[in-house]
Amino acid sequence: MRTALITGATSGIGKATAKLLAAQNYRLILCGRRKEALEELTTELSNYTEVFSLNFDVRSNAEVSDAFKTLPKEWQEIDVLINNAGNAHGLEPMSEGNVEDWDTMIDGNVKGLLYVSKEVMPQMKRRNSGHIVNISSVAALQTYANGVVYCASKKAVDVISEGMRLELTEFNIKVSNVQPGAVETEFSNIRFKGDEERAAKVYDGYEALKAEDIADLIAYIINAPKHVSIANVSIFPTAQAEPRTIYRRT
């Protein structure tokens, strides 16, 4: 039975992936900063597989380091790391941007991914085995106005994924970079800081991807044959032609 660690596991893509992998008989290490939601998901999925949870904020290297020190010996060999935790905050021109929003995105989307990966990679290298899946965005492919810092943070994920692949392939470790297009999750609610009306308009007039669609893709990637490494995948809803262009029917 393989062990998968998922960051940002309490909602959206992370939660959907956790549920799917539990059904596929993976042991799960679920990570999240919302303790109550993490405990609820851990209890739910423990009915189907072995589950261990780690409560920390990826933006804090100290929290990440302390959390990993609590992993029992039998949970320290991680076969699959899914770096899913991330965020978008605000949608303004750089000249009017909120510096705290910038820090939140860079600390979560970039530094958090690095902090967690650094904890997991050494044991993968020692065992000459492992798979890292990084969740980027199609925003890395095409910068859009008013979202420059978010786009830059996701471009960094692409670059980090490429660098991981260069450094880890000799150790038989696969690295996959997933770039979702428009996915209907809590993403827009967070970006617009709880403005549900504004967030809902993001998905008006077309059928966006669901978190389960990305979970299906992640499962396909990590269950591919041993000799197959899926490096980069972009996934759009049918109505989306490129990061900035969505055809709305109503």
Automatic annotation (TrEMBL):
Pfam families for the chain: adh_short (PF00106)
Tree of life domain: Bacteria
This protein's UniProt keywords: Oxidoreductase
Keyword Cell wall biogenesis/degradation: no
Presence of the UniProt keyword Oxidoreductase in the record: yes
Molecular function terms, GO-annotated: oxidoreductase activity, acting on the CH-OH group of donors, NAD or NADP as acceptor
SUPFAM superfamilies (UniProt xref): NAD(P)-binding Rossmann-fold domains
Family: Belongs to the short-chain dehydrogenases/reductases (SDR) family.
Protein's name according to its UniProt entry: NADP-dependent 3-hydroxy acid dehydrogenase YdfG
The organism of origin for this protein: Halpernia humi
